[in-house]
């Protein structure tokens, strides 16, 4: 990934990031557009929620992975997730034998379950002489965790592991495949330390996952950049594949013939995503 200078322009357009054949530009693409009326679009989901102490989230409506797909996915016990996330994981399993190296261990949690998990983590840390604050930093309390959104899933690599890798996902073939391909299914991952057994993935949808891949930034950074730029366009080989806009008007312009989706974070921002794929 190469971060291109803000001053660089291509045909009068400012390049924000570039990687291979893909470029992320500030603003909307040129060419034919159509008008969408925001209130006539389907209700916005909370795909981009960023929970913390100042912006807690409520419990989400979740589905049982076992009830939906049985033993099709490698899961420890039962896991609750958004239906969309379960389908994305199933798409992965159709393309790669996940059971050969991955087990799904955690999905969505209620606030009560999150608090119980934090308490258990604190007790485990204190037993080995570590500070409770360390555990609380890794396992936030109820309302402050991505797990309460239902968009996050934790996995554990299984089988023979190559433990010399600091990045936990590099320790077996399944993890390395996931590193390269997860964005194609809508997931992102910001890394885990050498001592971390559980790997935390966040579902952000395919469009945002593509933008994050090209930029090398995290979800919070990308939402902040979108707030600054108001709109961004992603092109591949010179063709527009998506554009994202901060919704500030009752009507918005999008490239002709694209599929739209409205999503919000929990900080008052609504994002309109239009994609060609």
General description of the model:
- With 277 residues, the protein is of the alpha+beta class.
- It folds into two domains: 108 residues, 2-Layer Sandwich (Phosphorylase Kinase, domain 1); 141 residues, Muramoyl-pentapeptide Carboxypeptidase, domain 2, CATH 3.30.1380.10.
- The strands form four sheets. Strands 1-2-3-11-12-15-14 form a seven-stranded antiparallel sheet. The protein has a four-stranded antiparallel sheet with strand order 7-8-10-9.
- The protein is globular and about 60 Å long.
- The N terminus is likely disordered.
Tell me the major beta sheet: 7 strands, antiparallel
Average predicted local confidence, pLDDT: 91
Distance between the termini: 23 Å
Strand fraction: 25-35%
Return the CATH class of the largest domain: Alpha Beta
Order of strands side by side in the largest beta sheet? 1-2-3-11-12-15-14
Shape: globular
Number of helices: 7
- What is the count of distinct domains? 2
**Rg computed from alpha carbons, rounded to a whole number of angstroms:** 20 Å
Spans of 5+ residues with little confidence (pLDDT < 50)?
Answer: 1-7
Number of strands: 15
Q: What string gives the helices and strands in order? A: EEEEEHEHEHHEHEEHHEEEEE
Q: Helix proportion of residues, in percent?
A: 25-40%
CATH topology tier name of the largest domain? Muramoyl-pentapeptide Carboxypeptidase, domain 2
CATH architecture of the largest domain: 2-Layer Sandwich
């Amino acid at each position: 990934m190469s971060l291109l200078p803000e001053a660089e322009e291509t045909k009068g357009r400012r390049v924000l990031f570039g990687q291979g054949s893909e470029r992320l530009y500030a603003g909307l693409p040129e060419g034919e557009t159509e008008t969408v009326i925001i209130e006539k679009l389907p209700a916005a989901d909370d795909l981009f929620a960023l929970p913390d102490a100042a912006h807690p989230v409520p419990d989400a409506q979740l589905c049982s992975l076992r009830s939906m797909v049985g033993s099709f996915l490698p899961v420890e016990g039962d896991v609750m997730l958004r239906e969309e996330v379960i389908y994305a994981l199933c798409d992965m399993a159709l393309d790669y034998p996940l059971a050969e190296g991955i087990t799904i261990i955690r999905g969505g949690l209620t606030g009560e379950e999150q608090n119980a998990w934090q308490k258990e983590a604190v007790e485990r840390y204190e037993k080995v002489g570590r500070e409770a604050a360390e555990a609380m930093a890794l396992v936030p309390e109820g309302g402050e965790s991505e797990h309460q959104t239902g968009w996050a899933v934790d996995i554990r690599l299984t089988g023979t592991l190559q433990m010399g890798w600091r990045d936990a996902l590099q320790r077996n073939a399944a993890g390395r495949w996931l590193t390269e391909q997860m964005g194609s299914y809508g997931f992102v991952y910001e890394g885990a330390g050498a001592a971390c057994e559980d790997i935390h993935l966040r579902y952000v949808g395919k469009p945002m996952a593509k933008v994050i891949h090209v930029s090398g930034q995290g979800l919070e950074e990308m939402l902040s950049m979108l707030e600054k730029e108001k709109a961004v366009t992603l092109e591949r080989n010179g063709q527009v594949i998506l554009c994202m806009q901060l919704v500030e008007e009752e009507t918005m312009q999008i490239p002709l013939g694209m599929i739209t989706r409205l999503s919000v974070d929990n900080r008052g921002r609504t994002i309109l995503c239009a994609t060609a794929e």
